[in-house]
Design goal:
This protein is mainly beta and 208 residues long. It is built from 4 helices and 10 strands, in the order H-H-E-E-E-E-E-H-E-E-E-E-H-E. It has one domain: Beta Barrel (Lipocalin).
């Protein structure tokens, strides 16, 4: 008798689980209970982090790009999150839209001027807790040599031990909106608008 399609699928999954250490691992226990979360110094896991920006395209759609190279240092105090700090450095030449001509244009003086201003930075100055897993992180954001305050709306995804490398990990998501003209980036403002959205997600490994 032939096995049913369902039974065949179960057999494939079972075989993969036996063959793959990852699938055989017990899922991590991730908690947002700050009484159980470990604090200390954390560094970004670059393999599991994204900084995505968005801007209007002629009013017809929202265009997205990202930065592929950045560093983040997080000092997290679960007993008093307001005492935490966040320090970000973004390598501007890493801007990527998967369109070579557009990437070159974005690196030009009309936009990010990557040759003269190769980095953008964010240094937190104030952290406010707004809910059990949410907060606002305000800091000094420097772009194109101009420093202005920027507020990130942050969601704490939780902390726990990574099942593969046994590092203690924290996860955060954040969003923000900024006006590019505040930093001197005014090219094509009548076409592309002024507001730029930011979507940030990252995992952080506890520094040993």
């Amino acid at each position: 008798m032939k096995m049913s399609a369902f039974a065949s699928a179960l057999a494939v999954v079972a075989a993969l689980a036996c063959a793959s250490p990852l699938l055989a691992q017990t899922p991590p226990v991730v908690t947002t209970d700050l009484a159980q979360v470990q604090g200390g110094d954390f560094v970004l896991d670059k393999n599991h982090a994204k900084i995505i920006f968005s801007i209007s395209h002629l009013g017809f759609s929202t265009y997205y790009g990202l930065f592929t190279d950045f560093d983040v240092h997080l000092k997290f105090d679960p007993k008093n999150p307001a005492n935490s700090t966040l320090d970000v450095t973004v390598q501007i030449p890493s801007v990527a839209t998967f369109n070579e001509k557009l990437d070159a244009h974005l690196k030009s003086p009309a936009f990010f001027n990557a040759a003269q201003f190769p980095t953008a930075t964010f240094k937190s100055t104030k952290i406010e807790v707004t809910g059990p897993t949410t907060g606002r992180v305000t800091g000094d954001f420097t772009l194109l040599g101009v420093t202005k305050p920027l507020t990130l709306n942050v969601t704490f995804n939780g902390g726990g031990v990574h099942p593969m490398n046994e590092n203690y990990v924290l996860g955060l998501n954040a969003t923000a909106t900024m006006k590019r003209s505040d930093f001197g980036m005014k090219a094509y403002r009548e076409w592309l608008g002024d507001d730029v959205g930011l979507i940030i997600s990252g995992e952080f490994d506890q520094a040993l």
